[in-house]
Amino acid sequence: xxxxxxxxxxxxxxxxxxxxxxxxxxxxxxxxxxxxxxxxxxxxxxxxxxxxxxxxxxxxxxxxxxxxxxxxxxxxxxxxxxxxxxxxxxxxxxxxxxxxxxxxxxxxxxxxxxxxxxxxxxxxxxxxxxxxxxxxxxxxxxxxxxxxxxxxxxxxxxxxxxxxxxxxxxxxxxxxxxxxxxxxxxxxxxxxxxxxxxxxxxxxxxxxxxxxxxxxxxxxxxxxxxxxxxxxxxxxxxxxxxxxxxxxxxxxxxxxxxxxxxxxxxxxxxxxxxxxxxxxxxxxxxxxxxxxxxxxxxxxxxxxxxxxxxxxxxxxxxxxxxxxxxxxxxxxxxxxxxxxxxxxxxxxxxxxxxxxxxxxxxxxxxxxxxxxxxxxxxxxxxxxxxxxxxxxxxxxxxxxxxxxxxxxxxxxxxxxxxxxxxxxxxxxxxxxxxxxxxxxxxxxxxxxxxxxxxxxxxxxxxxxxxxxxxxxxxxxxxxxxxxxxxxxxxxxxxxxxxxxxxxxxxxxxxxxxxxxxxxxxxxxxxxxxxxxxxxxxxxxxxxxxxxxxxxxxxxxxxxxxxxxxxxxxxxxxxxxxxxxxxxxxxxxxxxxxxxxxxxxxxxxxxxxxxxxxxxxxxxxxxxxxxxxxxxxxxxxxxxxxxxxxxxxxxxxxxxxxxxxxxxxxxxxxxxxxxxxxxxxxxxxxxxxxxxxxxxxxxxxxxxxxxxxxxxx
Length: 712
Description:
Elements lengths: L4 H14 L4 E5 L2 E5 L16 H4 L7 H11 L14 E3 L17 E3 H12 L3 H12 L9 H5 L19 H17 L10 E6 L8 E6 L2 H9 L6 H5 L12 H13 L8 H10 L11 E2 L5 E5 L2 E6 L3 E5 L1 H9 L22 E5 L2 E6 L3 E6 L5 H9 L15 E4 L2 E6 L2 E6 L4 E6 H9 L15 E3 L3 E5 L4 E4 L5 E5 L6 H9 L10 E9 L2 E6 L2 E6 L4 E6 H9 L15 E3 L3 E5 L3 E5 L6 E5 L5 H9 L10 E9 L2 E6 L2 E6 L4 E6 H9 L15 E3 L3 E6 L2 E5 L5 E4 L1
Antiparallel strand pairs: 1-2, 3-4, 5-6, 7-8, 8-9, 9-10, 11-12, 12-13, 14-15, 15-16, 16-17, 18-19, 19-20, 20-21, 22-23, 23-24, 24-25, 26-27, 27-28, 28-29, 30-31, 31-32, 32-33, 34-35, 35-36, 36-37
Helix pairs in contact: 1-5, 3-4, 4-7, 5-10
């Protein structure tokens, strides 16, 4: 801590030979130049460095310290070890009551030693670097001596004697100096120089040079005076990078000057989250002119001589300057409509400035002034979806208005090229091109005939858009002309109920392609993209038919044709095909191909229909007709079905039915003219228990497996 005039001048000379106005400060990717020279007019003897700056241990990482050292001495003189290349095996240290945490020793570089000591003792690593430079010129020396490392921080080096050997060594010097400053802070009342009062401070070790009164404003400045107990006089300040007069001292001047040249203001700290950006922008920002300000949403901003840095974790630190910065802060800054900057300001200062923000864009030209695009805040979900659509360069462009409620849990926000529409109930976001939105809103919007959107549009700005809604599909051309691609005809009442039961536009039918039409005899239908709804108005039953099935059915005569009316809706799927039952036939429609009648397709009319229906038509004993009416002779006639026959005595006007096995056995025995004779009853029993039937000359019993025997 010795501060003789000669040693201090030597340190000054070492510094001034290397650089007078330029200093280097590392960023994580390498050094960046700082062209901000110290001005002696700014030196305040009562506030050489603030507590906030001196004790801020978060300002540099190990990598930044190493990069800084590399930048100070790019090439070391042969045969010497410069600080950037220095390694030492350090000794572990216990936690200290004055405020230093425990230190784990290891073989480590000078950069890591500086970082670990700064972190353990809560000292700014920049303060340590400056201390090393002002005491021994060690940071900038390209041919340092063993003595410089031995007494690196001047700790244990009184003015009246040689340095104490107990404190020799680089780590020893750095650690004990940092610990000493924490001791000063821990017991300030026991020290000769104290903050918050007037102190008598010598100009020089020669007491004949006199002293002055200094009101020390903070503990860090008090610590510097305890460590180097002299104040620079006017001559020392007049020649800031050289020697003054015989009564000049330089230790505290050099600390302030070196810190200012290398790192900027000693009294206003650059916020740690802004430091890398401040270093990277160098002279374009200058030194901080005010402390950092915290923003309610977690952001930080700070003003510098030539601009601002504005930061939030998700956007990073961005530089602002000039008219665009003034406009931005007049409009509310980060809390305003533009949100946080997401790019640094760019462009030549006298020509143009442009900058992008979360919710907008600012540009400036000398003859135009500031132009704003966007500038309307968005909710997180809106912002996420807007960015997913390309943000300001995507299909929507910049926001053109604030979010508004659309009712029933929906909200929208207008952009240059369209809208974002949010279903808050389902938490789903859709976007609509501007022309599509206008067309949709003119027809009632959410409560209109088109319904709510069910997809965002497909297409492009050059090819046009197709967008699905709950009741229609809209086509929007590149020129902005909108028309119905499907669903122009409303689906209402019982039609809507059944259409929705079939999953509406996303189901088997798709959108409507026409109005409800009369099919006659109390039936009506409505056409859709992939089929028809067919309504039996008399029985209030709705069926649906795939398009191919409908077309086949209509060719076959529809309701009055040989297939008859539908009695079920189809079973199956679009991928596997459909099977559908009608009154007199079952129709199979493959996934691709022509529908066919699987069974049936023969008319059942008159007395045949009455009796077939009495037997529950196609669904119980007989099934579908597989032949027309056939003459059996002697006034008898028959019609064949899937599971049996109807046999009609036309003379007596009586109808019987016979299971297939019974019919075949009876016919093999001569039928009407055979030994069994004509039937006199229809069978009793069931398909699961078997059938019993009487004939004129006996009876027949038919088992469930089709075995027939004659019974008395």
